[in-house]
Amino acid sequence: MKILLIKMSSMGDIFHTFPAISDIKRNFLDAQIDWVVEDGFKEIVDWHPAIHKVIPIHLRRWVKQRNKKSWQEFKSWRSELRTENYDYIIDAQGLLKSALVAKCASGRSIDGYDKDSVREPISHWFYKRSHNIDKNQHAVERTRQLLGKVLGYTPVKKLNFGINQNFTHVQKDTHKLIFIIGTSWITKLWSTSEWQTLTKIAVDEGYSVEIMWGSLEERAIADQIIAFCPQATRPDQRLSITTIAEKLVGAAGVVGLDTGFSHLAGALETPTIALYGATSPIKVGLIGEHTQNLQLNTPLDCMPCHKRHCKWLPENSTSTPQCMSGIKANEVWQALQQKIFGEYTH
To answer: 92 and 7 in contact (C-beta within 8 Å)?
Structure first.
């Protein structure tokens, strides 16, 4: 049985799809699963042992450039894709762009979410079969149920992200913590002063702290934390996704924001606390017994706004919104310790 999965981005969405891939392999040992994904995430998809072939696509670049060269590259990519004939083509992303990519493939049919289950309802017109999946569920379960309905099985309760075996060579350091301070939206950032306080608490408790960064702005924040607590460290250069994964596996615990690397830490079953404010963890938060999504104890009326800019702050402000600054380092530390100690008492 040949299956083509369309789920092109983002990093967190890709990790959310891994349990569904494990489900397929549990039910169909001979399944050949190919996956269309944005080129920048090819490295991640390769981690799952059930994937037969990763098919990278440069859709973001092609759409941005919109020139003759991009069109020629797309046509060449489409021709290569059509050399394979699939029993099932599944659009697990549910967007117009992913539905159009699914139409590029050759196969018996295209499956996806129905118009009441999807973020962009127009996408369902491109499917031969569409499936009703409750929208009020976590993204992991929605994807698992979609693939289960398409292929005719019921997912088991226990999650299996299926990627830990790639990192069995990494030794756990029970006194090492990783802090993930960056994210794509300003409204998702936590106060630098709280990161400083949390780092000081961790160091005073005998832990070493390494701060991950991915941009010059994030590196500057890391340097502010280190200036406050010189025992903390950061990588000198940007690291590959695989190298960061190895650090996450080797850590005793992780604190992060609403970002793909926090989801990665959770998928790797490292005790992880993720902080949420402008976005809601109910449908796209970390999932699994090793994780906890932390918010204000008393949510604000405007939470979650799902906005890149806080309406209560001046335009272009880089200040931390109250929904995030109200989360205090002491409660984050307590939650992290509960997860870490719970991990070692199992």
So the answer is: yes
